[in-house]
Design brief:
Largest sheet: 5 strands, mixed, barrel
Number of helices: 6
Distance between the termini: 119 Å
Strand content: 35-45%
Radius of gyration: 34 Å
Helix content: 10-25%
Number of domains: 4
Order of helices and strands: HEEEEEHEEEEEHEEEEEHEEEEEHEEH
Shape: elongated
Number of strands: 22
CATH architecture of the largest domain: Beta Barrel
CATH topology of the largest domain: OB fold (Dihydrolipoamide Acetyltransferase, E2P)
CATH superfamily of the largest domain: Nucleic acid-binding proteins
Length: 404
């Protein structure tokens, strides 16, 4: 082996052992991995390899009970959120805004892009008034949140983190801040983490953010996907608000991912809640055996028959030939209407085609000819349950009464 080859081998080995010395310094937003070298009261320090060191707030290493989840020597992973201009130390993890005192400290935070902590003291024309380090700052309405906020008064009194976007003047500076900038940066970091596990079939936790007539939008970690109304549940859903509420945590399955194109900045992600629910048809033949007497609600009327919802996601069909008790009907609406509660007998179950055949003729289920006069429609009137015969049955009863 030549001396050149030996040197190259040694160099490659050195690169593997000290990757930080051969690569550019991580930038804000990059995810880095290192070893905890010390843990203090407020901060922990992380060796990132080479001569690069990171600083992380202790809060990022504590669980909900306040207990430390890592020790010196452990490997940790975090995102770069900034850089200390004086020491060159990289700031890691969630760097919450600190309380600053005086214009000089604010200028330092402004130059380093560090978040600052302030209290919203009022909603003014076009935005929010914020007190930071004893100075009055202005946050434009468009920078108060990622989403449009109709009533800015909801922020008044809250202590929030901001990024300084403009700092001009002397003792009474023109101080402009943005909360949106921090939220977007946090969202971007979360989105990068989510994309690493984003694939068709993946099951993710999310939060419902908004509704449209055609579906619900869900934040799955910095990225937003849409659950079409047909994927909300096995039962019939006409609007997402019937089964969900904004802010509700949900578990979703990824159906499709369409890459960003045509000027669209983010990919389109199709989600499903229904895919994770139990399929009501899986054992429908056992729960609705032939001959069983069932109750349901008329959900749809078609020229060929009436659909009856037996439970969410399970509809049975009463063919028009099973509605007239021997009399020919032109349409099911002659004896039924949508919303009617009916009792029926199961004629057959086809799991493969997801179909249940029903009859409203009780005689076919019980063998009692006296029960075969007409469909029984159950109507709820308070606590009283009244059973009335269909229109043809009523006419038949009236005719028999006259003969008597």
């Amino acid at each position: 082996m030549s001396s050149t080859e030996s040197f190259e081998d040694l160099l490659r080995q050195f690169d593997r052992a000290q990757p930080g010395t051969r690569q550019g310094e991580p930038k804000v937003g990059d995810r880095v991995q290192g070893t905890l070298v010390s843990i203090g009261e407020d901060f922990a320090f992380v060796d990132l390899g080479g001569k690069t060191e990171g600083r992380m707030e202790i809060a990022a290493l504590r669980n909900a009970e306040g207990e430390l989840t890592a020790a010196v020597g452990d490997s940790v992973e975090a995102a770069v959120t900034g850089k200390d201009a004086d020491s060159g130390t990289l700031l890691l993890g969630s760097q919450h805004g600190h309380k600053y005192h005086g214009i000089e400290e604010l200028q330092q935070a402004f130059s380093q892009g560090l978040p600052v902590h302030g209290q919203v003291t009022g909603a003014v024309k076009g935005g929010l008034e914020v007190q930071i380090a004893g100075l009055r700052a202005f946050c434009p309405a468009s920078q108060a949140d990622i989403r449009f906020v109709e009533d800015l008064a909801e922020f008044v009194g809250q202590r929030l983190d901001f990024r300084i976007t403009k700092l001009e003047g002397g003792r009474r500076p023109n101080l402009v801040v943005s909360r949106r900038a921090l939220l977007e940066e946090e969202q971007r970091l979360r989105a990068e983490s989510t994309r690493a596990q984003l694939k068709e079939g993946a099951v993710l936790a999310g939060t419902v953010t908004s509704f449209k007539d055609y579906g619900a939008f869900v934040d799955i970690g910095g990225l937003e996907g849409m659950v079409h109304v047909s994927e909300l549940a096995f039962g019939r859903v006409t609007h997402p608000s019937e089964v969900l509420r904004v802010g509700q945590p949900v578990e979703v399955a990824v159906l499709r991912i369409e890459p960003a194109q045509g000027g669209r900045q983010q990919e389109k992600i199709a989600l499903s809640i229904r895919a994770l629910a139990r399929d009501p048809w899986s054992d429908a033949d056992q729960r609705f055996p032939v001959g069983t007497r069932v109750a349901g609600t008329v959900s749809r009327l078609q020229p060929f028959g009436a659909f009856v919802e037996l439970e969410p996601g399970i509809d049975g069909l009463v063919h028009i030939s099973e509605l007239g008790a021997g009399r020919r009907l032109n349409h099911p609406s002659e004896v039924l209407k949508i919303g009617d509660r009916v009792e029926a007998t199961v004629l057959g179950v086809d799991l493969e085609r997801r179909r249940i055949g029903l009859t409203l003729d009780q005689a076919k289920g019980s063998g009692d000819p006296a029960e075969a006069a007409m469909p029984v429609v159950a109507q709820d009137r308070g606590a009283e349950r009244v059973e009335t015969l269909g229109s043809f049955g009523a006419l038949l009863k009236e005719s028999l009464d006259k003969r008597r």
